[in-house]
Structures are given as C-alpha cells and as structure tokens.
User: Which sequence fits this backbone?
C-alpha cells in the first residue's frame, strides 16, 4: 500500500532511497522519510492509495479487454486453419464466428462491469472458446457433408418442384421435409437442409 500511495503522491520517489516502509502485521507504515516534502499522513496515504486502486482497475480492464480480443482472434484463426482446405465449411466457420462474438461480447461486458481486479481475473479465468476439432473429426464431418450435398444436388435435379418446395415458409418446409418423397423413399431431413444451405450454388 505505501509504495502504491507514494507513487501517486511523489511519482519520482524511490523506495530505500527517499523512504522506507515496514509491515509488522497491523498494516504498513513509513519508517524513514528522506524527501524534502512533509511526510504524508496516514489519511493522505489512504486517499492516494484509493486513487492508485482506481487507476489499477482501469489498467486491468484495458489489459483484460486486449487479452479477450487476442484469445478470440487466436481461436478463430485456429478454426480457419483447421478447415482451410474444406471450402464447403463456410457455414461452420460463420457459426463459430457468431459463437466467438457472443463469448467475446459477454466477457467484455463483464470486465467493464467489474469493480475489482480480482473480478476481472475471474472473468478471464472462466473464458471458454469453441474447441477446435482434430483433423480426424474434421475429415469425418466433411465426408458426411459432401455425401449430404450430393444427395441435395441429386434431389434438386430429380424434382422439378424443388424450387417451389424450398421457397416455403419454415413451418411448411418442415412439414414438407417429413412427407416429401423422392424415388418412393421418405426424404431425409439432412438432405433438404443441405439443399437449403447450398441453394444458391445448386440451383443456379
């Protein structure tokens, strides 16, 4: 406390040169004062320390916000790198970005609302970002994606009314998914879901 308070009152003061302090368990106090100015009173020291604490909180908030932004950027770059060779996964990356933005926004709001440095540290310690899948999981998902996309493309080619079907409102579309048949078999939900996702590419 003493050093922090003195740094506010006398920014150029040097510990062990201009002053010394000791804490015997009941709190810090000045034991030696070598500056030309009057030795600050306990009240003056407390006021100065409160000023230092307020500044420390602001500095901690600024540093924490930078840390949150850096973590969010690093996580998204890791996702981009993992899926770099899989162009069909733009939608996945967009979903991840949405999740990252939400996590980032909540963290920044919590940091801004924090009233102590400890509360800020708690926010940083509790941050959880979307875990990046390993390559084996990515390859498996990509394989499923490509299969479903092929099914969606085939469905659009085989069904003249596909454009009309895909233009239905969400509630009607869900009903149509459950009852629509292609080649005598019930249309899989994922097939039409992928058809919707890739609509621009598949039916142009």
Assistant:
């Amino acid at each position: 406390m003493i050093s922090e308070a003195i740094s506010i009152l006398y920014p150029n003061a040097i510990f062990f040169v201009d002053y010394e302090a000791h804490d015997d368990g009941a709190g810090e106090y000045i034991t030696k004062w070598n500056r030309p100015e009057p030795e600050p009173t306990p009240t003056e020291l407390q006021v100065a320390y409160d000023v230092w604490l307020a500044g420390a909180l602001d500095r901690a908030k600024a540093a924490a916000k930078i840390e949150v932004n850096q973590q969010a950027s690093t996580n998204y770059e890791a996702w981009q790198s993992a899926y770099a060779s899989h162009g069909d996964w733009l939608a996945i990356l967009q979903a991840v970005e949405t999740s990252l933005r939400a996590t980032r926004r909540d963290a920044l709001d919590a940091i801004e609302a924090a009233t102590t440095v400890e509360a800020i540290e708690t926010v940083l310690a509790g941050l959880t970002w979307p875990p990046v899948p390993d390559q084996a999981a990515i390859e498996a998902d990509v394989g499923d994606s490509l299969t479903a996309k092929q099914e969606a493309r085939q469905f659009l080619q085989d069904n003249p009314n596909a454009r009309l079907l895909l233009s239905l409102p969400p509630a009607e579309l869900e009903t149509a998914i459950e009852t629509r048949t292609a080649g005598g078999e019930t249309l899989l939900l994922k097939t039409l879901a992928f058809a919707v996702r890739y609509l621009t590419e598949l039916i142009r």
About this structure: Strands lie at 19-23, 28-33, 181-182, 185-186.
